[in-house]
Design a protein that fits this description.
Radius of gyration: 20 Å
Structural class: alpha/beta
Shape: globular
Largest sheet: 4 strands, parallel
Bound molecules: 3-[(4S)-2,5-dioxoimidazolidin-4-yl]propanoic acid, fe (iii) ion
Strand content: 15-25%
Distance between the termini: 18 Å
Number of helices: 15
Length: 386
């Protein structure tokens, strides 16, 4: 098994004991307490890691954006497509037209691909409905998918993702609607675990995001932010002021933003799939984050526009190859730091007291998980001990 204190190191000849879905012992067989297991599973020298955690996805949506991809290959920019009414708004139309069952059916294959890569916890955002009914359907579909696919789902309300056409030119009025109508209603229905926003020149301003954050806090909900993806709006510092669980993307983060994240203990979630797919050229400031001790998470950002990626293993490879993260950072990024980015303390480590969410791999060294491009060496997966 991977060492809970150093995810790139291995504890050889380990025993993991679980009862009622929780780990009761994990460590060297020689130091294990006397156990009388009802069932023993031999892993035959395979590597066991925590079940992987994908802490930033937009997995639930309707439609496809392959045509937009073709337009981008022909030279159109992501911003130009968005300004012309395509992009997020085209996915909004397809998502609004879908029932909960249709959203589940469209999204289940994507989640199955994640599960085949060892994922046991996934965050799923709303943000393609952009009106109360469709946002609720997205979040209900997310909850249903977790039960259906045997994965823990953390739901994030991303009502402030894009301006729906009916509010064109009235962004503040839309934020009023998010804050006064959508957010409280969806929270009352128990559909929201955290609240996110897209702080960008093509989306919402820091002042508008701050109104969303204040409303989230008033309801006792933690916040996160899409920050500094395409330009520096000083969103990370705003997120840090609201004790955000994470600030995500961060290619255009500056030194003040790094210091703010470090001071607040906010996780920096890096999304190399979006960096790759949009052919971004500005790298996130990994050396600065590392020097400041900011915990780094890695996620797929699975979404139809900028990261049609379901492999968290490939996100790890991209984190290493494109962002120069170490093997230890990549592994921590999809386990312990990803748990922290979701405000979860009971998953992400193979240790007593943690939930028995485990991935058993047909490999012997942690580096192999990061090294491979494509495929999944998953041998078995345990979720809540099953
Ligand atoms: N940043 C992204 O990369 C995605 N959302 C966001 O806020 C893109 C979503 C899309 O293009 O559909
Ligand atoms: Fe995203």
């Amino acid at each position: 098994m991977t060492d809970p204190a150093r995810p790139d190191a291995v504890v050889d000849h380990a025993v993991i004991a679980a009862r009622d879905g929780r780990i009761v012992y994990a460590g060297p067989a020689g130091a294990a307490p006397v156990l009388a297991p009802a069932r023993t599973i031999a892993c035959d020298g395979r590597l066991v890691t925590p079940g992987l955690i994908d802490c930033h996805t937009h997995l639930v949506y309707g439609g496809s954006r392959a045509g937009e991809f073709e337009a981008r290959l022909a030279g159109a920019s992501y911003e130009a497509i968005a300004r012309a009414g395509g992009g997020i708004v085209s996915t909004m139309r397809a998502t609004r037209a879908a029932s909960v069952d249709e959203l589940v059916a469209a999204s289940a294959p994507r989640l199955a691909e994640m599960v085949a890569g060892g994922v046991t916890t996934v965050e799923i955002k709303s943000g393609y409905g952009l009106e109360a009914g469709a946002e609720a359907r997205m979040l209900r579909a997310a909850r249903m998918l977790g039960d259906r696919c045997g994965v823990s789902v953390a739901t994030t309300f991303l009502g402030a993702h894009a301006l729906p056409p009916e509010f064109a030119g009235r962004a503040d009025a839309y934020i009023d609607h998010v804050v006064h109508d959508m957010l409280p209603a969806l929270a009352t229905e128990g559909l929201i675990d955290a609240v996110d926003a897209f702080c960008e020149s093509i989306a919402f301003s820091p002042a508008q995001v701050e109104r969303v954050f204040m409303a989230a806090h008033a309801l006792g909900l933690p916040v996160k932010l899409h920050a500094e993806q395409l330009s520096n709006q000083h969103g990370a510092a705003l997120a840090a002021r609201y004790h955000a669980l994470s600030a995500d993307h961060l290619e255009h983060l500056d030194q003040d933003g790094i210091a703010a994240l470090a001071g607040a203990g906010t996780v920096a979630t890096l999304l190399p799939g979006a960096y790759y797919f949009t052919r971004e050229t500005v790298l996130p400031p990994v050396a600065g984050l590392r020097a400041a001790g900011v915990p780094i998470a890695l996620a797929t950002d699975c979404n139809p526009g900028t990261s049609p990626l379901t492999s968290l293993l490939l996100a790890m490879n991209m984190g290493a190859t494109l962002f120069r993260l170490t093997v230890a950072e990549c592994l921590a990024g999809v386990t312990v730091n990803a748990a922290r980015a979701l405000g979860r303390h009971d998953v992400g480590r193979v240790a007593a007291g943690m939930r028995a969410d485990l991935a058993v791999w047909d490999i012997t060294q942690p580096a192999e998980l990061v090294y491979r491009i494509g495929g999944s060496p998953l041998h078995a997966r345990f979720w809540k001990g099953q």
